[in-house]
Specification:
about 250 residues; eight-stranded mixed beta sheet; 8 strands; about 20% strand; globular
């Protein structure tokens, strides 16, 4: 994949803490939805956040996606699928029985994939009706959202391109069903063998890359942007994602 063109697209300086989001909250399928980007944009991106919800790192990421490509800006929508009750970030990593039990229960209940997958068609329909300029959709998923992205990128998907970062529950069998261009930006914490098998099973245009010194969640809630190394890779990850969307949408 070509490097991102700085002539048309530049990730703005990343704010390490105290980020002031540029967007607003609207309602889609009854869910509070962070909405950012110009309403005249013809391309849109659905963001599937990680299990920790609306954290500054992912809100800043949504704004970066919306505004950083001068040739192709995006309307970006990030619904609150957990309806104000995300997982507690102190549960991760699940390094004791109590944390593991809480995370397990969350994944089996609020974060059960079918609950989210069945809402996406109505979310897209309502967004398109409220924003008639939209002609095409991409999707980006973080961690748990990466799993949702894999599952919805198969036959009949409404999306033209997909990106997943620090994907949770990587299953090479999911890759066999993907029908659209897909990018995976893995961290050091995803099982390397699963990532390699996932890449091998993709039959579509793809870019799979491991950020080998980054923690799971480095582009979202667990990214410590006060750390210069994390901040640099956070920026590079978003440049990669923007490049992929630019090429395939």
């Amino acid at each position: 994949m070509p490097e991102y063109s700085k002539a048309c697209c530049t990730v703005p300086p990343v704010i390490a803490s105290g980020y002031n989001p540029k967007g607003k909250y609207t309602k889609l399928d009854g869910l509070d939805t962070y909405t950012t980007g110009p309403s005249t944009a013809k391309d849109a991106i659905l963001v599937i956040y990680d299990i920790f919800g609306f954290k500054d790192q992912i809100l800043q990421g949504a704004d970066i996606l919306a505004h950083s490509d001068s040739e192709r800006q995006y309307q970006v929508f990030m619904p609150d699928f957990f309806e104000g009750s995300p997982a507690d970030i102190s549960w991760y990593p699940p390094d004791n029985d109590e944390k593991g039990a809480k995370l397990g229960a969350f994944f089996q209940n609020q974060a059960a994939p079918p609950k989210t997958l069945q809402r996406i068609p109505k979310i897209l329909d309502e967004a398109a009706k409220a924003n008639p300029a939209i002609k095409s959709w991409g999707i980006i998923g973080y961690c748990w959202g990466g799993k949702i992205t894999s599952l919805i990128s198969g036959q009949g998907t409404p999306f033209k391109a997909a990106v997943e970062t620090s994907p949770a529950m990587v299953d090479p069998a999911d890759a066999e069903k993907v029908t659209i261009p897909l990018m995976m930006l893995a961290s050091k914490d995803e099982p390397a063998e699963d990532v390699q098998k996932f890449e091998a099973n993709l039959k579509v245009k793809k870019h799979v890359e491991t950020f080998g010194d980054q923690l799971h969640g480095f582009m979202s809630a667990r990214g410590d942007l006060n750390d210069a190394g994390v901040k640099k890779e956070y920026e590079r990850g978003y440049m990669r994602a923007l490049s992929f969307f630019h090429e395939h949408m």
